[in-house]
Design brief:
Layout lengths: L6 E4 L13 H11 L3 E6 L2 H13 L4 E5 L5 H15 L4 E4 L14 H28 L3 E6 L12 H21 L4 E8 L8 H4 L2 H8 L10 H12 L10 E4 L7
Parallel strand pairs: 1-2, 1-4, 2-3, 4-5, 5-6, 6-7
Helix pairs in contact: 1-8, 3-4, 4-5
The structure holds nicotinamide-adenine-dinucleotide.
The site of nicotinamide-adenine-dinucleotide has 28 residues, from helix 1.
């Protein structure tokens, strides 16, 4: 019971239906609930999000779903308030929502750039901003920003995605320094190539799969639980002396 009596809000948490391929948000929601937390799942995918939350409740967990587009400040205000109304407090925020964007520099349009920066940089900022007063009110909290190895190193494409994930990484450190005095810890997670709904098409395409495997020293694509367990560690008090840190979980990819 590593999150006993804690309340968590997770973005991009729709993909958590048991028996289907899960994403980091959905898998974390389950782990959090199994460790005693009450969980507010959020996403723009209402159908999957409602199914995940319903399945969690069927298994006896305290979980709810609410639509939250992380790029919209009004949505953030409403979702954080709904969490307080339902569960009375907020201890953990996982800024996990995201979308892929492959184009290289020359192919990247202004619209693609803005879309990627909105979801990966602005979304993380807005969530953090609106969680702070409620975490301060309970004496602290833990904010976990899901960046990427693509927030640490470059690649042949995904230009705006790299920029957005890099922004999320350094925003994490800025917020960590500012909020340490309030007992609010802020850390980033940097997954490597992991099989989730976002990467499913690529993992099942021979050429893309080869691209990934050729770059991973451990020689395999990671599983969603290998990331979710890291998120749980940062959410729990076991990581009580960690803030502004980067938790890299990538099979050794960025070690080379
Ligand atoms: N899978 C990987 O290999 C990998 C590696 C590094 C980082 N990541 C990051 O991990 C996070 C989770 O991705 P995942 O791989 O678990 O896939 P996923 O598809 O399960 O999660 C992404 C979720 O974000 C939601 N979303 C997209 N735009 C949104 C918005 N504007 N507001 C709210 N929700 C929105 C989607 O509906 C989806 O449910 C993403 O930020 C992704 O960039 C993934």
């Amino acid at each position: 019971m590593r999150l006993q009596d804690k309340v968590a809000l997770v973005t991009g948490a729709a993909h958590g239906v048991k028996g289907e391929l899960m994403g980091f948000g959905g898998a974390s929601a389950w782990l959090f609930a199994e460790e005693g937390a009450k969980v507010m799942l959020t996403d723009i995918d209402v159908e999957s999000g409602e199914r995940t939350a319903a399945q969690m409740r069927e298994e006896g967990h305290d979980a709810a779903f609410r639509r939250l587009d992380v790029t919209r400040e009004a949505d953030w205000k409403a979702a954080v308030q709904a969490t307080i109304d339902a569960y009375g407090r907020l201890d953990v925020l996982v800024n996990n929502a995201g979308t892929g964007g492959r184009p290289n520099v020359e192919e990247t349009t202004e619209e693609i750039w803005q879309g990627q920066m909105d979801v990966h940089a602005k979304g993380v900022f807005l969530g953090t901003k609106h969680a702070i007063p409620h975490m301060r009110a309970v004496g602290g909290g833990s904010i976990i920003n899901i960046s990427s190895i693509y927030g640490l190193v470059g690649s042949s494409g995904s230009t705006a995605y790299h920029a957005g994930k890099g922004a999320s990484r350094i925003f994490t450190k800025s917020a960590a320094v500012q909020l340490a005095k309030d007992g609010i810890r802020v850390n980033s997670v940097h997954p490597g190539f992991i099989h989730t709904p976002m990467t499913d098409a690529g993992v099942n395409t021979e050429q893309r799969r080869r691209f990934m495997l050729d770059r991973i020293p451990m020689g395999r694509i990671g599983s969603v639980m290998e990331i979710a367990r890291g998120i749980l560690f940062l959410a729990s008090d076991e990581s009580s002396y960690m803030t502004g840190s980067e938790l890299v979980i990538d099979g050794g990819m960025t070690a080379q």
